[in-house]
């Protein structure tokens, strides 16, 4: 692996030029804000020409360092919020306990691994998959009050916990954030997909974006990192930190 450098910002990041960052250093750099406030961050990757995926998946845009940061963000989170389509396309599995973050999680009063929370209106999911049959902690299903009763029943029979966070078939983003916080899951991480991220942005509940800018171009008509409803006035974010390695920029932006 080639050198990795950090560029100092107003947030005052520590440089690690000439070597790979350790997981502890990455965990410090990406630590959630102190205090008891609920904090929702997103982790996404984008090509230079704005694609959030290639052939329906984000992996072709990623790198080894991107995956280290991906793992670090998971290691810090109480809950990982993800859309059903992303679960299907990316082959989601349960989050695993990692020894590198065990002491840090124990000190923060966290369990050994984050909860996975799947946002879905239809509950069109394969409940025989390991995400539902083998998690360290039960997988959550975030859905609306009008969700199909037979699918809700199937989810519960598979061991998932169904959380109603909307009056209709779909989920209200702000209610989803609040419902997770009520369960003590205040350090929240969403990994998309684009439609779910767009809903969080439109609802004004996204606090931070961790965006890896991949030194690739895809052309085509791939989705951006956020889709769905637009906002009347663009939401402003301020840069918190920037890391660079092998041409990738690993950025953090916080909502102003």
TrEMBL record:
One of its GO terms (molecular function) is 5-amino-6-(5-phosphoribosylamino)uracil reductase activity. The keyword Metal-binding does not apply. It comes from the Bacteria. InterPro entries: DHFR-like_dom_sf, RibDG_C, Riboflavin_Biosynth_HTPR. GO terms for biological process: riboflavin biosynthetic process. Pathway: Cofactor biosynthesis; riboflavin biosynthesis. Pfam families: RibD_C (PF01872). Keywords: NADP, Oxidoreductase. Residues 39-235 form the Bacterial bifunctional deaminase-reductase C-terminal domain. This is Bacterial bifunctional deaminase-reductase C-terminal domain-containing protein. It comes from Streptomyces gardneri. The lineage of its organism: Bacteria, Bacillati, Actinomycetota, Actinomycetes, Kitasatosporales.
């Amino acid at each position: 692996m080639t050198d990795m450098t950090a560029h100092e910002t107003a947030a005052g990041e520590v440089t690690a030029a000439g070597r790979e960052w350790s997981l502890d250093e990455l965990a410090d750099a990406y630590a959630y804000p102190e205090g008891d406030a609920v904090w929702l961050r997103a982790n996404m990757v984008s090509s230079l020409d704005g694609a959030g995926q290639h052939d329906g998946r984000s992996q072709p845009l990623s790198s080894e360092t991107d995956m280290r940061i991906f793992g670090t963000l998971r290691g810090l989170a109480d809950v990982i919020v993800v859309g059903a389509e992303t679960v299907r396309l990316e082959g989601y599995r349960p989050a695993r306990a990692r020894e590198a973050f065990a002491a840090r999680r124990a000190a923060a009063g966290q369990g050994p691994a984050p909860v996975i929370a799947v946002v879905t209106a239809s509950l069109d999911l394969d409940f025989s998959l390991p995400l539902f049959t083998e998690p360290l902690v039960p997988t959550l299903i975030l859905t609306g009050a009008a969700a199909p009763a037979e699918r809700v029943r199937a989810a519960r029979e598979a061991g998932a916990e169904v959380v109603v966070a909307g009056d209709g078939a779909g989920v209200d983003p702000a209610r989803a954030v609040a419902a997770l916080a009520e369960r003590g899951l205040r350090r929240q991480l969403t990994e998309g997909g684009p439609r779910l991220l767009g809903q969080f942005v439109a609802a004004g509940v996204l606090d931070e974006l961790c965006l890896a800018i991949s030194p690739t171009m895809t052309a085509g008509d791939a989705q951006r990192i956020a889709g769905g409803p637009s906002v009347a006035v663009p939401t402003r974010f301020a840069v918190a930190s920037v890391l660079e390695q092998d041409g990738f920029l690993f950025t953090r932006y916080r909502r102003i």
